[in-house]
Structure formats: structure tokens, C-alpha cells
């Protein structure tokens, strides 16, 4: 393996980790730095094109997650902590994207691809899981995402990933 291949491989690995950490923490400026101008995000068939549009989508997800602090907490499903209970304890809500089994293919000094499994944790525990298929290229000498396809394989019933717009191809675990 040549040195440029090692640099490309480690750059891709670092991009995936930074994407998880910055996105989960709402560090939008740092997340945006990871994307090439032509960034394409395909989330289960919903395609968003261009870095600005992708970042607008990410920011809107955070803006649309609102918790009514005055609402009585619902009964926990299957003994899971509800978001309202969590906040009532003085804790902040969180999400944690975890990627594993990442396979990186360095095609050339200008192109790389990766495939990873992911799962998402919230205050409830495991929420949903699936696969990422990513593409990368250097921009001004720095590797960036050019495309991310997210394929959600399954979700826990009542979880965020099993939301109201759940596509029929995603299996909901725990449903009757």
C-alpha cells in the first residue's frame, strides 16, 4: 500500500467519526466542513442535493425536535425511560450514531468509497439501525464527503426511527 492510500483511508475513517460526533452534538459549522459543495444525502430515498441544502435539512431536524416540558410524561413503553422523564431529571436529550464494520475502498487519489453498519442510541436505548454507503473526494487537498446514502434496516416500535413517515420496507421491531 502506498502512502497516499493510507492517508486517504485514515481521512475517510476520520470523516465518518467526525460526522457522527458533530452531527449528534449539533456542531453544524464543523459538520458542514466535512462536505464537498456537491454533497448529496440520500436518506431512504429522500434525496437532498448540495452542501447548503443538506445543512439546512440537518438544522431543520434539530429545530423540529421540540419537547413540551409542561406535558405530563407518558407511561414508559416496555420499561424504557421517556424523553420527558429524562428531561425532568435535569438531563439533556441526546442521540448517538455509532458506526461499525466500516469497509473502505480507495479507488484512486481522487476517489474513495465506504460501507458501514450503523445504529442509533437515544435516552430510550437502541432506536434504529441500518447501513451507510458513502463516497469521498479531496477538495483543496482535504478529503470530504460527496455522497451519503442511509438505508434504515429496522427500528424499535415507538422510537424516533419508526416515526410517522416510516417507509413500508423498514421493519419495526416489537410491532404486532
Description:
Helices cover 27% and strands 40% of the residues. By secondary structure, the protein is of the alpha/beta class. It has one domain: Nuclear Transport Factor 2, Chain: A (Roll). The longest helix is centred in the N-terminal third of the chain and has 22 residues, at 3-24. It is elongated. Residues 65-74 and 166-170 have low confidence and may be disordered.
Q: Outline the biggest β-sheet.
A: 7 strands, mixed
Using the coordinates above, name the CATH class. Alpha Beta
Rounded to the nearest angstrom, the radius of gyration is 18 Å
Overall form: elongated
Characterize this entry briefly.
Helix content is 27%, strand content 40%. By secondary structure, the protein is of the alpha/beta class.
Strands, helices and their partners?
Elements: H1 3-24, H2 28-32, E1 35-43, E2 46-49, H3 51-64, H4 83-88, E3 96-108, E4 111-122, E5 125-139, E6 142-156, E7 171-173
Parallel strand pairs: 1-6, 6-7
Antiparallel strand pairs: 1-2, 3-4, 4-5, 5-6
List keywords for this structure.
7-stranded mixed β-sheet; single chain; 176 residues; 4 helices; Nuclear Transport Factor 2, Chain: A; 40% strand; alpha/beta
Amino acid at each position: 500500500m502506498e502512502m497516499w492510500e493510507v492517508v486517504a483511508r485514515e481521512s475517510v475513517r476520520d470523516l465518518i467519526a467526525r460526522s457522527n460526533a458533530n452531527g449528534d452534538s449539533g456542531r453544524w459549522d464543523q459538520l458542514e466542513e466535512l462536505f464537498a459543495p456537491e454533497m448529496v444525502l440520500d436518506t431512504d430515498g429522500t434525496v437532498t442535493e448540495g452542501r447548503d441544502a443538506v445543512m439546512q435539512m440537518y438544522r431543520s431536524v434539530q429545530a423540529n425536535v421540540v419537547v413540551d416540558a409542561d406535558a405530563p410524561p407518558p407511561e414508559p413503553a416496555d420499561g424504557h425511560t421517556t424523553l420527558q422523564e429524562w428531561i425532568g431529571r435535569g438531563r439533556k436529550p441526546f442521540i448517538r450514531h455509532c458506526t461499525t464494520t466500516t469497509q473502505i475502498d480507495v479507488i484512486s487519489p481522487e476517489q474513495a468509497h465506504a460501507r458501514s453498519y450503523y445504529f442509533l442510541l437515544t435516552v430510550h436505548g437502541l432506536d434504529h439501525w441500518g447501513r451507510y454507503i458513502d463516497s469521498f473526494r479531496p477538495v483543496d487537498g482535504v478529503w470530504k464527503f460527496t455522497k451519503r446514502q442511509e438505508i434504515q434496516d429496522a427500528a424499535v416500535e415507538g422510537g424516533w426511527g419508526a416515526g410517522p413517515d416510516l417507509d413500508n420496507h423498514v421493519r419495526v421491531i416489537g410491532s404486532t
